[in-house]
Task: inverse folding
């Protein structure tokens, strides 16, 4: 597998707290899950997805974690049509 | 080499020390007791006058937003009201601020303070519009910015609205730390403050809350100029309390002593804010009762030792609305008034419809904010996401809304009522919370006086409640 070149824009993942280390006030369902974080930055040296890597964030901070995504992007949208909204405020409801 | 213990317990134990370094304020100097402190002195010590705030905000594209009269919506409300009823509804279009919400006012003064004090960067811990506001202000003042957000549940799924807010922070050049659900966000916040030495651009510092005073000031003065009187009511979306506190203080500074200050939140009762399961079963990520009630009844649960946002100090009434009602009004605003704005910002507009019906035609009610809209931050995205996550979405009577289960969108305007939240009950809860911090038997005159002011009541009422709590 070709490695991901240094300088690529990537996202890293880190487990901050394991389930047993979580805050005492956390509800039971949340307590079963690890506390995780994700940050994007430029890859400091060549690496592979799933490997522990170092990044430099957009403000220049150096962080390390597991490389999970290359060129992380956004795909949020306006969603599927919601028929319940269509007639509000139109002639169909007057 | 750092030899610091960065375990959860060790970092939390260093909280006060980290706060002092990162806000540059010695909160202990204002303290009278574990509950009482000199609030006005803390606010005055910022040194910012209203003129300073207006100037600072003007420099970074904040403030002087339009105040629109919603003629078509006002007419629609009058058609369903008793004869002579149906107050004029005005809307302060805060989406016009840099970054698209009133939060820019808070961020502007906070970031200015950070720059003045010589910090290299600022940190904001928030999943709300405040992150983008701080990022936008930081870039204009040449400071680095880190935003810490609660974004995902344990499946890695994020609300479209929060995902969009993260994108916007990154668009302004901020580093965004995205987290799963949990109160440990505060731990990451402290750790990052300590590692970077950046300024804590908390929502709850005196600087941030002072920044909102310009909003109340502009509303009060503009209504007086245009209509020759002060507004009868100003309605404010309430979560952590800064929006209400700052606006109310600004209204007072503009001479609006008789204006009713009405809080409004989306009713999300029954959902646990730190629950991984409930996290994506709510369509509103702020401006809801999950923040509004706990922050009203104990403001000092914030990320600073003494919260400058103290809503019950200024609140006259509190109104709750359902998610379905807000989505309905958001769509109606678009169709009747020709402006598209984000749903969270329309929370107070929803309550304004219910209140305007009960007010006289010659009265004025001001909705004091809007927010930007776009992909993710749109009622259609929110409803589509809710449906995908198993929430039932239908038209009907909004009284049938069940947070986390059903979103009922009203069939007609006269079903938009929301409901009144008893604020006397909130005042009593506040006192019980205060008694947990500092035993009631130790309360002295200074404490009772502080509590009376903090609850917009008098010392005899506080003493009477003390007897009742003692009797329980």
Result:
């Amino acid at each position: 597998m070709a490695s991901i070149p240094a300088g690529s824009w990537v996202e890293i993942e880190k487990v901050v707290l394991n389930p047993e280390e979580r805050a005492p006030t956390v509800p039971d369902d949340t307590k079963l899950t690890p506390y995780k974080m994700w940050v994007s930055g430029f890859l400091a040296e060549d690496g592979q997805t799933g490997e522990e890597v170092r990044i430099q964030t957009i403000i220049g901070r150096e962080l390390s974690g597991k490389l999970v995504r290359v060129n992380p992007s956004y795909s949020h949208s306006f969603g599927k049509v919601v028929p319940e909204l269509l007639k509000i405020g139109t002639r169909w409801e007057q | 080499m750092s030899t610091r213990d960065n375990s959860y317990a060790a970092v939390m134990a260093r909280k006060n020390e980290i706060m002092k370094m990162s806000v540059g304020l010695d909160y202990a100097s204002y303290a009278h007791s574990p509950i009482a402190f000199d609030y006005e002195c803390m606010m005055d010590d910022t040194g910012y006058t209203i003129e300073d705030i207006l100037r600072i905000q003007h420099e970074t594209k904040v403030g002087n937003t339009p105040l629109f009269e919603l003629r078509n919506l006002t007419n629609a409300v009058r058609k369903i009201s008793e004869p002579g009823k149906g107050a004029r509804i005005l809307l302060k279009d805060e989406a016009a601020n840099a970054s698209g919400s009133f939060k820019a006012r808070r961020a502007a003064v906070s970031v200015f303070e950070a720059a003045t004090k010589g910090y290299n960067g600022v940190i904001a811990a928030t999943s709300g519009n405040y992150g983008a506001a701080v990022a936008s202000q930081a870039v204009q003042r040449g400071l680095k910015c880190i935003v810490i957000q609660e974004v995902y549940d344990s499946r890695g799924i994020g609300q479209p609205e929060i995902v969009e807010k993260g994108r916007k922070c990154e668009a302004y050049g901020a580093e965004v730390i995205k987290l799963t659900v949990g109160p440990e966000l505060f731990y990451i916040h402290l750790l990052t403050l300590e590692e970077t030495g950046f300024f804590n651009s908390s929502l709850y510092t005196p600087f941030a809350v002072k920044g909102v005073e310009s909003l109340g000031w502009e509303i009060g003065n503009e209504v007086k100029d245009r209509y020759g009187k002060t507004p009868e009511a100003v309605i404010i979306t309430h979560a952590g309390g800064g929006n209400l506190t700052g606006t109310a203080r600004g209204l007072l500074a503009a001479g609006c002593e008789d204006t009713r200050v009405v809080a409004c939140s989306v009713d999300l009762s029954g959902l646990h804010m730190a629950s991984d399961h409930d996290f994506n079963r709510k369509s509103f990520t702020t401006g809801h009762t999950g923040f509004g009630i706990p922050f009203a009844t104990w403001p000092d649960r914030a990320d600073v030792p003494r919260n400058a946002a103290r809503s019950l100090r200024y609140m006259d009434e509190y109104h709750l609305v359902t998610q379905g009602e807000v989505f309905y009004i958001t769509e109606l605003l678009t169709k009747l008034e020709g402006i598209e704005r984000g749903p969270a910002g329309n929370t107070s507009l929803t309550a304004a419809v219910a209140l305007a019906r009960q007010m006289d035609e010659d009265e004025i009610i001001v909705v004091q904010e809007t927010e930007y809209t776009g992909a993710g931050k749109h009622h259609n995205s929110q409803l589509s996401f809710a449906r995908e996550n198993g929430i039932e979405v239908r038209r009907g009577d909004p009284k049938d809304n069940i947070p986390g289960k059903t979103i009922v969108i009203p069939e007609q305007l006269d079903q938009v009522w929301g409901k009144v939240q008893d604020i006397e009950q909130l005042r009593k809860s506040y006192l019980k919370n205060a008694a947990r911090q500092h035993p009631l038997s130790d309360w002295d005159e200074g404490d009772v006086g502080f509590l009376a002011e903090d609850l917009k009541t008098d010392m005899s009422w506080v003493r009477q409640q003390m007897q009742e709590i003692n009797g329980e």
In short: The mean pLDDT of chain A is 95. Chain A touches chain B at residues 16-17, 21-23, 25-27, 29-30, 32-41, 57-61, 74, 76-82, 84-85, 88-90, 93 (CB under 8 Å). The two ends of chain A are 62 Å apart (CA to CA).
